[in-house]
Amino acid sequence: MKIAVLSSHTTSLFWFRMDMMKDFIKQGHTVIALGPEPEVDWKRKFNEYNIDYRQLCVDRNGINPLKDLRTISALHNFMKKENPDKIFTYQAKTVVYGSIAAKINGISEVYPLIAGLGSIFRGAGFKNKIIKAIMKIEYRAACKFSKKVFFQNHDDKNEFIQKGLIKEDKTIIINGSGVNLEIFKPVPLPQETVFLFIGRLIKDKGIIEYLEACKEVKGKHPNVRCLLVGPYDSNPTALKKEELRPYIESGIIEYFGEQSDIRPFIALCSTYVLPSYHEGTPKTILEAMAMGRSIITSDAPGCRETVKDGLNGFLVKVKDIQELAIKMEYFVSNPDASRTMGAESANIAREKYDVKIVNKNIMRIMGII
User: Among 19, 315, 353, 367, which has the highest number of CB atoms less than 10 A from its own CB?
Assistant: First the structure.
């Protein structure tokens, strides 16, 4: 069969869905991946895994209706020409417009993944309210035109059901994107206490809370290291360079920018921290767990699924800098806890989040094994 995988973020497509696409190919299927970045930058990288990459006209964060119409048109033309047997799509715009374009072309085998509802869907304010109302209409249509819809946590699934966007018998829960246990393996912890945050530098990821908690912890324990890995972003809530600069210049944060391989940085840390406001299921947490790290994350949709509070880490209230700092200080005062909780994280990753198990479930639902 020919399977199309659609995303409005090429980097995410390459790093977060590669294991799944490789498993599709192992089953004898052809995969075409569509994302917004130029083919000249990405086609060769995808070709190395026998995946055909095509550039898609899609503005991930924009709200210009003319650009969105161009996205629908581009998807319609692609599907009319290629006629894929099945479509897997994730991220808001490609979920919505991919499902609509498939319907226009008479393709019913569409399987969206709702990997978190994002800042617009959960945000406040008049403008946000209008956009959210439009998104509900679009999501309702996307779900109607799809065969099954994957969710990574029960909070998001229940919200879709309660708002009448989908019927429960169309929903499937999967354990995040999974983690490749052959690549992410337990490694020894550092001797000192080291905290790490990995993610796009947007406020909804809890970056401000992390920076401020690090400032408080470093003020009491100067030898503690606080690491930060991740790119600046075009999201409306993105952190600006001038906002991060004081934390770097004062030595509170060691910033390493965007990295293609995050394993060396997870190996440097003793505890992984992600105080996000909402997620699908954060892949970086799963990767840190697989490498045997204790976790501090928010008691928020998608995040709370990864931590058994007090067993492999701690859950903290969303936007609560003080509680986050207290939990970070716990690991400073109790260094052995990083080791014991990290071991529990590795156990949970093996039992629940093995990418082979997650992908097998996806393929079973899609009818490709």
Answer: 353
Strands (E) across the chain are located at 2-6, 30-35, 52-55, 86-90, 110-114, 149-151, 171-173, 194-198, 225-229, 254-255, 271-274, 294-298, 313-316
Residue 157: CB partners within 8 Å, gap ≥ 6?
114, 151, 171, 173
Residue 281 Cα to chain centre, angstroms:
6
**DSSP 3-state of 201:** coil
Q: Is the dihedral of CA 324, 327, 331, 337 positive or negative?
A: negative
Class of domain 194-352: alpha beta
Contact 62, 37 (CB under 8 A): no
Supply φ then ψ for residue 334, to 5 degrees.
-130, 70
Q: What is the residue extent of each domain of the chain?
A: 2-178+355-366, 194-352
User: Nearest 5°: CA angle at 89, between 85 and 95?
Assistant: 120
* Residuewise pLDDT in 10s, the chain (369 residues): 999 999 999 998 998 999 999 999 999 999 999 999 999 999 999 999 999 999 998 877 667 778 889 999 999 999 999 999 999 999 889 999 999 999 999 999 999 999 877 655 656 677 777 878 888 999 999 999 999 999 999 989 999 999 999 999 999 999 998 999 999 999 999 999 999 999 999 999 999 999 999 999 999 999 999 999 999 987 778 899 999 999 999 999 999 999 989 999 999 999 999 999 988 899 999 999 999 999 999 999 999 999 999 999 999 999 999 999 999 999 999 999 999 999 999 999 999 999 999 999 999 999 998
CATH H-level, domain 2-178+355-366: superfamily: Glycogen Phosphorylase B; (3.40.50.2000)
Do 2-178+355-366 and 194-352 fold alike per CATH? yes
